[in-house]
Write a structure and sequence with these properties.
- There is one protein chain.
- The protein is of the alpha+beta class and about 350 residues long.
- Among the domains are: about 125-320, no CATH class; about 325-354.
- Helices cover about 30% and strands about 15% of the residues.
- It contains 7 helices and 13 strands.
- It has helices at about 165-190, 195-205, 215-225, 235-245, 275-285, 310-315, 325-350; strands spanning about 15-20, 35, 40, 45, 55, 55, 65, 85, 90, 100, 130-135, 245-260, 260-270.
- Strand 3 (about 40) and strand 4 form a beta hairpin.
- Helix 1 (about 165-190) crosses helix 3 (about 215-225).
- The relative contact order is 0.14.
Amino acid sequence: MLAGFTSVMTCTPAHAQICAADRNGNGDASDAGETAMCEAMAGGGVQCPIERTACVADAAGAWACPLGLQFACAAPAPGATPTCSPHICTAADAPGGGIEHEPIVDDPGTPADGPVDAAGNCTGTIEIFSGRAVRCRTAGLSTTFSNCCKDKGKIIRDGNGSALASAGATVAVARGVFTGMKAAYTAFQAGATATQAASTGARALVIGIDPTSLAISVAINLMVEVLLQGCDQQDMEVGMLKGSGMCHEVGEYCTSKILGLCVQKARGQCCFNTKLGRIIQEQGRPQLKSFAGLGWGTPKQPFCRGFTAEEFQALDFSRMDLSDYYTEIQARAQGQIQLDMKDRIDAYTRTMGR
């Protein structure tokens, strides 16, 4: 299952030359085939392989680029026919000219324990159904053209106020999966077999996590998939929360550019600790003047604060459609009943010695 780990977690070498081109005319260079490592040429220098063209000899025997005289001809190897490219190479780490990265959107959310007075009364602002501003990256240069925003399926079960009582607990579960993923990768690199590495990752994954809050088998499949792609920890966390119905997508923005061309995009999200929280936020905000004009913020800076006590009291729940959540509760309750029945039958069988 873990075969191929040796090919992951690669990065652009320091001082490497790269190039980018908007080949399909959509205004960015974030699609496969639109970025490349520049290649060394005979006699020194580098050339972009994107849309590279063979040079032609003029009447005097001099080589000229058919794309334009402004593009230099260079031979890829001694004695080879010179080629030219219309695209510029730049050092990946060149100040002001290499890859420009936007800071990662990573909002810790409202602290669960705010300031209190001597009597134990909360002196801070209480927020109900607050969320976190995060992002996941779509297919692009930094993700080895893998879509890290892809719906991973339902992994984290909605706590309904018990298994996952706070956003902090939800984040702990998501980060627990990442811990398991790293443990599996480390074991594999140390010489463990695929089965041994998977077992190591699974043990690390469940430590400190309520197993009823997590679809462990799906989570293990996710952590293997993430390792084989260029997704980072926040991509994985958002993939889990988004697939579990706990995120509201705000929009897409550019996170990395080369020479002004976007080579990596991301989708800003507001993620909540429960699916119910996300539904009430989506249907409650339009009812309140305090959110008018603010909406969900911008993709780069999602606005994910919770409701104040006064705002929450002003919500008209009769105008909200919670059927999506009711269906999930009903399905979970039916499954739980079957599980309880099996546990009781098993216990009875053990007691009777059968």
